[in-house]
Amino acid sequence: MSITQEAARPADRAHPQSVGSESPDGCPPANEVAESRDAAPGRGRDPQSAADDYMTVELLCAALARIRLDRQQADGGHFRAAELPGPLPRAWRDARGRLWWKAQALGSDWPGNDLELFEWCRRPLGSWPVPLSLAGGDLEAILLDGDELSEFAEQAADLVRHADVEAELVQNQTFAALMSCARMNGDGEEAVQRIYCRLRRLLIDRPVLSDRDVQALARELSKADADSDSYLAKFVRTAYVLHPVESPGKVRLGRCRECRNPVDDGASGCGTPGCGGRPERFEVACLGGYWTQHRATRQFFHDPGLLEGRLLDRLAELPADRVRTEPWPCLDAWDAALIFEPVNAGGERECWAIDAKDCASPTLLARGFRSDARVPARRRIIVVPMHRLQTPGYLADLERELHGRAAGVEVLDEKAFLRHAAVRASRAGGAR
Ligand SMILES: [Zn+2]
């Protein structure tokens, strides 16, 4: 059954007609829902109305992710086949309620039933009968691409805290397992940080691991719990999925030459946002099986980490006597800290903290961004990959949305940032 078929259950279909002028279940009271004051969505947005509409969209995305999880649990992972009893998630009803209130205020059409709202989710947000006050680029976004969540919807769902979705669960578990592997194997703060960075980098560089790779890693990171289960094994089991093979030997697989994500036979591209890599065949030598990243690991660590990995590689090329790069300082407070040597004798070192963000919506990025004060820095910079600039007004939208949320945080694209860092490095180290 598709995501939409579920909504067509009779109980739900009857529901909206029965409410008359009353609001659907789960609606906030009228005085908690701002009226829309803008008839022209995207232009001259009123901040309050925009905040409300982003909340509505986030609720919908969290609900779609929740429905997918329920479906996966109901039929062991086959997304389309489940018959699912029970009501739609609370977030879905809340979002529908918010749309209902807005439609009342505007005198516009509203989704008459859940099936209709699912249909809306397949259309660009800017074309919905209830006009949404969203940034220009976001009005182009769809929430459902066929029966799959769009990239926009995946990221929006991720930003809704406490949205109980499988991906968030795996993301949190992976993070926790990575952290305990680093803590248990690291003797002292520095060693913990070093192992943390190594495992974070593994998630970026190695979407596929053979069991031999894992064995080699386990010899280095060998600490185990009371049941002799190693912390590394727990980490790998959480972040990756095992594919057993019948006999030891080489397995031929397809992957993207650039980002190294696995690709299916016959695929023309890899499908990773911003990646133009071509598919290639490669061999994995394994004893009993190989590991590929869990969907959530790919979504939350690998794919967004590609930009982080690229930046760290480029920063490592800067002269070490002028600038030092610390990846993921304070166990990931920021993606990197750059420490420039003093410009002249008696001067001070200067630190920049950077966060690499590859996010479809600048507004959602800004809404979810927290500037972590644990790293004292002269400049705090969000670095955006070049492919996001294809969205018109992306950087301006991001700067505007950050304004008032994260004071003093700058926004630079990848190339501009590397240029700034190189210029600043060339002035550093004069004190010697
Ligand atoms: Zn790729």
Bound molecules: zinc ion
**Computed structural class:** alpha+beta
**What is the CA-based Rg, rounded?**
24 Å
Residue share in helix: 40-55%
Whole-number count of domains: 3
**C-alpha end-to-end distance:** 69 Å
DSSP strand count: 12
- Main β-sheet description: 5 strands, mixed
Number of discrete helical segments = 16
Main sheet: which strands, in order across?
8-9-10-11-12
Tell me, rounded to a whole number, the average pLDDT.
83
Could you give the order of the helices and strands? HHHHHHEEHHHEHHEEEEHEHEEHEHEH
Q: What are the segments in which pLDDT stays under 50 over at least 5 consecutive residues?
A: 4-44, 77-85
What is the 3D form? globular
Q: What is the strand content?
A: 5-15%
Describe what you observe in this structure.
The protein is 45% helix and 14% strand. The protein is an alpha+beta fold and 432 residues long. The protein folds into three domains: 3-164, no CATH class; 168-299, no CATH class; 318-427, no CATH class. It has a five-stranded mixed β-sheet, with helices on both faces. The chain has a three-stranded antiparallel β-sheet with strand order 3-7-4. A two-stranded antiparallel sheet has the order 1-2. Helix 8 packs across helix 9 (189-205), helix 8 packs across helix 12 and helix 12 (295-316) packs parallel to helix 16. The radius of gyration is 24 Å and the shape is globular. The chain starts with a helix and ends in a 5-residue tail after the last helix. The model is unreliable at 4-44 and 77-85 (pLDDT under 50). It binds zinc ion. Zinc ion (ZN) binds at residues 256, 258-259, 261, 270, 272, 275, 277. It comes from Streptomyces hydrogenans. Residues 305-426 form the REase associating with pPIWI RE domain. InterPro entries: pPIWI_RE_REase, pPIWI_RE_Y.
